[in-house]
Specification:
The chain is mainly α and 193 residues long. Helix content is 42%, strand content 5%. It has a single domain (2-190), classed as Cytochrome p450 (Orthogonal Bundle), CATH 1.10.630. It has helices spanning 2-10, 16-46, 49-57, 62-72, 105-108, 143-160, and strands spanning 88-90, 93-95, 165-166, 189-190. The protein binds protoporphyrin IX containing FE. Protoporphyrin IX containing FE binds next to helix 2 and helix 6.
Length: 193
């Protein structure tokens, strides 16, 4: 797909800005995020064997699990920069026009004022929307696609490998060194018991 886009750019069908922004969209916004959802989500599941067993027994619960994976350990640490256009007070702190604001989505998703027992992995939370896909006019346009991809990947892995288990101490796992993204370099697992 990228080769085709480069070819169209060379032929003048799309300009360089469209080419780079579309490549960024496909690789970062569209791909890395979903890779991280699958890795972080499987890690959460494998660290909660009781929940994993409940899901294996009834895969129709997958959408609830994917939502809780997104809340509990989402792929995007911080939203993109915001700059107020007029003075605004956030959490008691006055921000002036033009000052940069970085919203921590991971912290918001563990906010005890928004979620009961926020550090618990509890699929099926009702009426507690998470911020993993942002909020408002810039809400992720790929949210529905990402959820379907997560359901397909995690559902198939569970079906195919009934004895799937973590093959490392979670403290040994290493994470991408990124201020924006939260994803695993690798997730060592044992496929067969
Ligand atoms: C689990 C996977 C994903 C997560 C956690 C995620 C997360 C986010 C977040 C938090 C934002 C809002 C950023 C902000 O307000 O500063 C966003 C925006 C966006 N996402 Fe995703 N995303 C995911 C998958 C995808 C996919 C699959 C696509 C496209 C194929 C995509 C395309 C976009 C685009 C184009 C925007 C910008 C929307 C705008 O500014 O109007 N994302 N995403």
């Amino acid at each position: 797909m990228l080769t085709d886009l480069v070819r169209r750019s060379n032929q003048g069908e799309i300009d360089k800005d469209e080419l780079t922004s579309t490549a960024f969209l496909l690789l970062i916004a569209g791909h890395e995020t979903t890779v991280a959802l699958i890795g972080n989500g499987l890690l959460a599941l494998l660290r909660h064997p009781g929940q994993a067993a409940a899901l294996r027994a009834d895969l129709s619960l997958l959408p609830d699990f994917i939502d809780e994976m997104l809340r509990y350990d989402g792929p995007v640490r911080n939203a993109t920069w915001r700059f107020p256009t007029e003075p605004v007070v956030i959490g008691g702190q006055e921000m002036l026009p033009g000052e940069p604001i970085l919203v921590s989505l991971l912290a918001a998703n563990r906010d005890p004022a928004a979620f009961a027992d926020p550090d618990a992995f509890s699929p099926g939370r009702i009426g507690e929307p998470h911020l993993a896909f942002g909020r408002g006019p810039h809400y992720c346009v790929g949210a529905a696609l990402a959820k379907v991809e997560g359901e397909a990947a995690i559902g198939r892995v569970l079906e195919r490998f009934p004895d799937l288990a973590l093959a490392t101490d979670p403290a040994e796992l290493s994470w991408w060194p990124s201020a924006i993204m939260r994803g695993l370099f690798s997730l060592p697992v044992r496929l067969h018991g």
